[in-house]
Design brief:
globular; two-stranded antiparallel sheet; 7 strands; five-stranded antiparallel beta sheet; 13 helices; DNA-binding
Length: about 270
DNA sequence: GTCCAGGGTAAGC
DNA sequence: GCTTACCATGGA
């Protein structure tokens, strides 16, 4: 176990931010995260102190990058237009959110599944897939399936994970990656535009899902996914379109604050 | 029972 | 280029 310190880090907020479907809260300050075939326990101890159930080497080689610990989020928040009261409130409310660096394959499949589902339903489908063909890495803990494992599932097995009409989308994406027709790792070196074009070339991946994969897997924090929640905000607060050009290269971070804030607001 | 969800595709204009 | 019907399912 190691102890680290971080500002702008709140487990509950990250868990509820809709970017990751494999972060499970145990109580208000503890969680399990499954990523990269690893299982991590995190506990928040107050004052920005975090206890992680890994050693220094594993932190340095994986989790530090996963949680984007080298970025200072106060810089993004500080760049917000002082006249934009809505965005200032949203950022203040969700200031513990960080943009994770998740695995491209898991993110691609998860967000293909996400279309027209609410977050609990997405988590449920992803969990079923992992239990069905992901490697067991702990008590009741399963890694996200490999492309090979996912590509070998039958249509019925996939369908039984409540994928509905998305079943062929998932199947084809897994097959294409497994066959080497798309190299998700090699795509890391592409420009934003090239990466976007590669992603939307997947059957079942459109503008919104491609932007989510860019933001949450490839850490292209300028990507700005527009779903029904963000569209509602754009219409209600920005005359139909958020001024992404005012925040060159990091509008995606602000998008997360707004998404999280608006979902909370709706709950009351 | 009804409404809605981190949308995309294909067909039609 | 821009609309529109249709898609399956579960959570609230």
């Amino acid at each position: 176990m190691i102890t680290i310190f971080s500002g702008n880090f709140n487990l509950r907020q990250i868990a509820d931010s809709g970017q990751c479907f494999r972060l499970k809260m145990l109580d208000d300050s503890q969680a399990y995260v499954i990523a990269g075939g690893r299982l991590l326990h995190i506990a928040e101890k107050g004052g920005g102190r975090l206890e992680l159930s890994c050693n220094e080497a594993e932190y340095g080689s994986f989790w530090q990058d996963y949680f984007d610990m080298d970025s200072d989020y106060s810089v993004y928040i500080g760049a917000i237009d002082p006249g934009d009261d809505f965005l200032k409130k949203a950022a203040e409310f969700g200031r513990g959110i960080r943009i994770l660096r998740q695995e491209p394959f898991e993110t691609l499949i998860s967000f293909i599944i996400s279309q027209r589902k609410n977050i609990p339903a997405i988590q449920s489908s992803v969990e079923k897939l992992c239990r069905l063909c992901g490697k067991r890495i702990g008590e009741e803990a399963y890694a996200f399936p490999s492309p090979k494992a996912l590509a070998s599932l039958s249509e019925k097995e996939l369908s039984d994970c409540s994928l509905g009409y998305r079943t062929p989308y998932v199947r084809e994406a897994a097959r294409r990656v497994e066959a080497g027709e798309a190299d998700l790792d090699a795509m890391k070196k592409l420009s934003d535009e090239e990466l976007y074009e590669e992603l939307v070339s997947f059957y079942g991946v459109g503008k919104k899902v491609a932007n989510c994969v860019m933001l949450f897997a490839y850490h292209r924090i300028g990507a700005f996914p527009v779903d029904v929640w963000i569209k509602r905000i754009e219409d209600g607060h920005y005359g139909g379109r958020f001024p992404v050009e005012r925040y060159p290269g990091f509008a995606g971070v602000l998008q997360q604050y707004m998404f999280f804030y608006s979902r909370f607001e709706k709950e009351r």
